[in-house]
Write a structure and sequence with these properties.
Elements (H helix, E strand, L loop, with lengths): L2 E2 L6 E2 L2 H11 L7 E2 L6 E2 L2 H12 L1
Antiparallel strand pairs: 1-2, 3-4
Protein name: Zinc finger, C2H2-like protein
Keywords: Metal-binding, Zinc, Zinc-finger
Pfam family, one: zf-C2H2
Length: about 55
């Protein structure tokens, strides 16, 4: 069974994975790093860059 982040729709094998992902990627500062393609915000540059690479591919 897959667990899906309700914020960005990424899939995880278990609920703990989703919770840890949300702590790291979707914090109060999630709008600090904006995607220039869709204007979605991310807590880290790495998360934004990963998203941006997926959006452009």
């Amino acid at each position: 069974m897959a667990y899906i982040c309700n914020i960005c729709n990424e899939n995880y094998r278990n609920l703990v994975g989703v919770i840890e992902h949300q702590k790291m990627e979707h914090t109060k500062e999630e709008t600090k790093y904006k995607c220039d393609k869709c204007k979605r915000g991310f807590a880290t540059k790495e998360a934004r860059n990963k998203h941006r690479n997926n959006v452009t591919n």
